[in-house]
From TrEMBL:
This is DUF2281 domain-containing protein. The lineage of its organism: Bacteria, Pseudomonadati, Thermodesulfobacteriota, Desulfovibrionia, Desulfovibrionales.
Length: 86
């Protein structure tokens, strides 16, 4: 059976749901909502993902220069003499 129109899909889905026990319908509704969300979420154009990725760069804010930050990192390092066994 070749389905070509949306109304045919809807009839098929409705028939499948009608064949289920009433106790299972809520689970099916939740599954449909989950799948719908997943499908629509992945329909986002790749360009949007790319731009969102690049927009995340440069969000670090600090008044110090790079040299001051590096110096601070080195000064706050601590050595440990504890034994580590794997």
């Amino acid at each position: 059976m070749q389905i070509t129109q949306r109304s045919e899909y809807e009839k098929l889905v409705l028939q499948e749901i009608k064949d289920l026990p009433e106790s299972e319908i809520q689970k099916i509704i939740k599954m449909i909502q989950f799948l719908k969300k997943e499908v629509l979420q992945h329909d986002k154009p790749e360009d949007e993902d790319y731009l969102e990725f690049w927009d995340s760069f440069g969000s670090w804010k600090d008044e110090r220069t790079a040299e001051e930050i590096i110096k601070d990192i080195y000064e706050t390092r601590r050595s440990s003499s504890r034994d580590i066994s794997l």
